[in-house]
Amino acid sequence: xxxxxxxxxxxxxxxxxxxxxxxxxxxxxxxxxxxxxxxxxxxxxxxxxxxxxxxxxxxxxxxxxxxxxxxxxxxxxxxxxxxxxxxxxxxxxxxxxxxxxxxxxxxxxxxxxxxxxxxxxxxxxxxxxxxxxxxxxxxxxxxxxxxxxxxxxxxxxxxxxxxxxxxxxxxxxxxxxxxxxxxxxxxxxxxxxxxxxxxxxxxxxxxxxxxxxxxxxxxxxxxxxxxxxxxxxxxxxxxxxxxxxxxxxxxxxxxxxxxxxxxxxxxxxxxxxxxxxxxxxxxxxxxxxxxxxxxxxxxxxxxxxxxxxxxxxxxxxxxxxxxxxxxxxxxxxxxxxxxxxxxxxxxxxxxxxxxxxxxxxxxxxxxxxxxxxxxxxxxxxxxxxxxxxxxxxxxxxxxxxxxxxxxxxxxxxxxxxxxxxxxxxxxxxxxxxxxxxxxxxxxxxxxxxxxxxxxxxxxxxxxxxxxxxxxxxxxxxxxxxxxxxxxxxxxxxxxxxxxxxxxxxxxxxxxxxxxxxxxxxxxxxxxxxxxxxxxxxxxxxxxxxxxxxxxxxxxxxxxxxxxxxxxxxxxxxxxxxxxxxxxxxxxxxxxxxxxxxxxxxxxxxxxxxxxxxxxxxxxxxxxxxxxxxxxxxxxxxxxxxxxxxxxxxxxxxxxxxxxxxxxx
Length: 664
Known about the structure:
With 664 residues, this protein is mainly alpha-helical. It has 26 helices and 5 strands.
């Protein structure tokens, strides 16, 4: 029976799929983030069977420890020696566990780890001796060969020994907890820093709610992994090995064989059921992602939901995900029930066989009553850690499933990286020149023939991504050869408000600003903090952005616009079409050139439908007649309506009349 259970657990993964059969086919589909971003690393594989020569059973048994370790640590990375794919780095659970023993860590942390491991060994060696202390007390009472005070002392020592074991356990936790929490903090900070360094375009294509959920679950998995591997798996295996060794040494091969069969059947059944839960755990994670994302999006876009009267639709979508979560929860309870029943049959059946052997030996005088009590106590003492072993292995698999998507994020390398030892961007005051030299867009950035890629051009100035060909320079320095922090501190893009206080948003552009500077900037625009609410109203947001208006003085501002009225007063307007620069000039010059810009202006005027737009459209020919021969166009700063009005006033009598306009 034992060999059969282990052999069943060693079958190929394709044979371990009944847990997935509890779910509808749609429930095992990867989530949207997994489909777009890390499908090769995190998708819950179905492992389609492949016809090949069957592996001998002995070979499978020989590979059992390695396979268990592989399933715990590396998940779906099959060949550890193979180099990581392009654009990735090697990151596994071994990398994560390295935070417990940092190469340049504090010496105290390493001493704490060693001390906690030493206490672990002492506690386990001590606890396996406790049942034999109870044996001596029972034999002393039954035989009556020792004084009553000695029997009472042995009984009391047995109780004290249990308390000592508890003290050793708690001391181990107290020693290790600061190290574990420090490792968790450093790992979390490093993971957050790595996510911040990923390509902006890639992050922009992901679901914010789902990414935040992946990050939170990854931290939970990291915490569970540190706790379970150090304080559950190792101690349980050590205690089991010591107990089996003592049984064989004291009571012979028959007791050793029965106890070994009991433990093997117990562990084999536990691992078999847990292996069958892999697909279920992945489906639970995906459903949890969908639930959180739908709730997050519905609350974030609550105004759009209400204005479109789609409350019932959102509730139905959320309820569909809840129904799937309900089915998964029922399947999980059934799996846990099967685990518990199988463990009970294996353990209590083995214990019954051991007691039958003890009864025969006690009857024949080979063993004392105390020996029977010691054997029973030792096996009962193993029952709790062995029972937790199945759940521990299950929690480790859950932790690795939780961490798998986060580890996929950590494996991903940003494409935009400064060279090693890149110098900061040289400061040239306010006279900096931004130049796009032969810039083109690679095939990964093509988004359609009708897209001009104006936004991509602005992103390249910040090096949010690199051009497919050419280079971008500031004062002659290639931005690809300087550090990213110095570049992005010099070049600003957009004004975005965080869901935080007004002071936080004003200070964000210059973290070194004093409280007086922040207060002065807020006072100049009449900014008042609202009394409540999670996000500021639109007027509040507009005033926050107005604080930054003075930052545009004496600097080059690159604006991406769709509405042409917003760029009429700009010194230079660059017109792009299908990724190429086709026109350049002022508003007046571009209108009179009758090119792409003029056609866009005409189209927007036609789309307006109001009298003002019609006046602007019909007045363009008259306006262009003034560009070369009149100074009115310069006085009107490129506005068609102002230019024609000034020309009409030129014939009116008044003080200061002259060629080019009327001066009041």
